[in-house]
TrEMBL record:
<dbReference type="Pfam" id="PF00440">
    <property type="entry name" value="TetR_N"/>
</dbReference>
<keyword id="KW-0238">DNA-binding</keyword>
<keyword id="KW-0804">Transcription</keyword>
<dbReference type="InterPro" id="IPR039538">
    <property type="entry name" value="BetI_C"/>
</dbReference>
<dbReference type="InterPro" id="IPR009057">
    <property type="entry name" value="Homeodomain-like_sf"/>
</dbReference>
<protein>
    <submittedName>
        <fullName>TetR family transcriptional regulator</fullName>
    </submittedName>
</protein>
<dbReference type="InterPro" id="IPR050109">
    <property type="entry name" value="HTH-type_TetR-like_transc_reg"/>
</dbReference>
<feature type="domain" description="HTH tetR-type">
    <location>
        <begin position="21"/>
        <end position="81"/>
    </location>
</feature>
<dbReference type="GO" id="GO:0003700">
    <property type="term" value="F:DNA-binding transcription factor activity"/>
</dbReference>
<keyword id="KW-0805">Transcription regulation</keyword>
<dbReference type="GO" id="GO:0000976">
    <property type="term" value="F:transcription cis-regulatory region binding"/>
</dbReference>
<keyword id="KW-0678">Repressor</keyword>
<feature type="DNA-binding region" description="H-T-H motif">
    <location>
        <begin position="44"/>
        <end position="63"/>
    </location>
</feature>
<dbReference type="InterPro" id="IPR001647">
    <property type="entry name" value="HTH_TetR"/>
</dbReference>
<dbReference type="InterPro" id="IPR036271">
    <property type="entry name" value="Tet_transcr_reg_TetR-rel_C_sf"/>
</dbReference>
<dbReference type="Pfam" id="PF13977">
    <property type="entry name" value="TetR_C_6"/>
</dbReference>
Length: 210
C-alpha cells in the first residue's frame, strides 16, 4: 500500500518521512470513513481534522484541497480492494482454476456486503458522472477488474477467445456492482441477504463456465 500513499502525496510540496506516511494513512482512513458515511458533500478537510484531533493545517500539509484528498481516498480504497485480490491469488497459486474462481467470487461478494465498501462505491459511481477524479479512478479500477476476471474465466473456460472473455468479465462485474447497490439499501434481513449472495455466486460461476 506504500506505492498508493506515495502516489497520493505527489502534489505535496515536500518529501515525506516514514512517520509522515503513517500520518497520511491516518488521514486517508478518516477521510474514507467520512466519505462512506456522508458522501462527497459531507467530506471536508475540517471534518477529517476533527475526526483525528489534529489541525486543519496538518491535513492541508499532506493534501492541499478537498479534490486532492478525494482523489487520494478513491485511489486508496480501490488499491485496498485490488490488494486483497492479489493476496488471494498468491495464496491460491497452486490451487485449481475453479478453486481460484470460487475463492475470488467469495472475496468479491464478501466485500459487497460491507457497508463501508458499498457506501464508498455508491458515491464513486455517482461522482464519476460529474467529477473527473472519480471518473479517472473508476476507469482504472474497472480496467484492472476486467483483466482479473478475464484471467479467472480463462482458467475454467480456456477455449474462449479474448472478446468473449471480456464480455463475460464485464457481465460478472456488472452483477457484483448491482448486488452492491442492493445490499447497500439494507433491504431484507440476514437470511435474505445470505440467500441473495449465494444466488449471485451461483450466477457468477454459471457466467464463467457455461
Amino acid at each position: 500500500m506504500r506505492d498508493t500513499l506515495l502516489e497520493s502525496l505527489k502534489k505535496k510540496d515536500s518529501g515525506t518521512t516514514g512517520k509522515g506516511m503513517d500520518r497520511a494513512r491516518d488521514i486517508l482512513e478518516a477521510a474514507r470513513a467520512l466519505f462512506a458515511a456522508e458522501g462527497y458533500a459531507g467530506l471536508s478537510m475540517r471534518g477529517v481534522a476533527a475526526a483525528l484531533g489534529i489541525s486543519l493545517s496538518t491535513v492541508q500539509h499532506y493534501y492541499r484541497d478537498k479534490d486532492t484528498l478525494l482523489e487520494a481516498v478513491l485511489l486508496y480504497q480501490m488499491d485496498q480492494y485490488q490488494a486483497a485480490v492479489a493476496e488471494l491469488s498468491g495464496v491460491l497459486a497452486d490451487a485449481g482454476p475453479e478453486a481460484r474462481l470460487r475463492a475470488a467470487m467469495a472475496l468479491f461478494l464478501t466485500e459487497a456486503r460491507r457497508p463501508e465498501v458499498g457506501g464508498v462505491f455508491m458515491e464513486i459511481w455517482s461522482l464519476a458522472n460529474r467529477h473527473p477524479a472519480a471518473a479517472r479512478v473508476l476507469e482504472q479500477v474497472r480496467l484492472r477488474e476486467r483483466k482479473q476476471f478475464m484471467r479467472l474465466v480463462q482458467g475454467v473456460a480456456p477455449a474462449l477467445d479474448e472478446g468473449e472473455l471480456a464480455r463475460r468479465a464485464r457481465l460478472m462485474i456488472a452483477l457484483i456492482e448491482g448486488l452492491t447497490v442492493q445490499l447497500s439499501r439494507g433491504d431484507g434481513g440476514e437470511e435474505e441477504t445470505g440467500a441473495l449472495v449465494r444466488a449471485a455466486e451461483t450466477a457468477l460461476l454459471g457466467i464463467a463456465r457455461d
